[in-house]
Amino acid sequence: MLQKNSQIEPLFWQKKSLMDMNDAEWEALCDGCGKCCYRKYIKGRGRRERLYYTSVACNLLNVETGKCSNYLERFSLEQDCTKLTKKNLPQFGWLPQTCAYRLLYEGKPLFDWHPLISNDPNSVSRANVLIKNGIHEKDVIDWFEFVIDEH
Ligand code: SF4
């Protein structure tokens, strides 16, 4: 069961816009899939530009659970770790298609497996949303060998 938080209004993701959510609601929106913590890269220019997703994970990510192993110190430990905010969300077009922030930004509903709906944090893993066979960046030489389909 998810912990109750008095700052979180029931069904807030259906009632409020992203901009109207408070900090606790904004944080609760994350389904914890960890997919944004896998490396991506862009190749080509102009019309040939293409975004590649990989199974190469940030060194801090627990690839089994999809959780950051040092959430509190992540910004000092990983230079390119970026906080997703209401302001920068429009620039994060690379977020996975299942990401709750992306879904709401695009006017789509959350999936039934989202913990806010299932009331069970394990439902994300059961729905096979986590990236499989993740490998840490420190163990990889060529990211291109770990390109995966868009997620
Ligand atoms: S991809 Fe979206 S929902 Fe998944 S961990 Fe990242 S911010 Fe949270």
From TrEMBL:
It comes from the Bacteria. This is YcgN family cysteine cluster protein. Pfam families: CxxCxxCC. Coiled coil: none annotated.
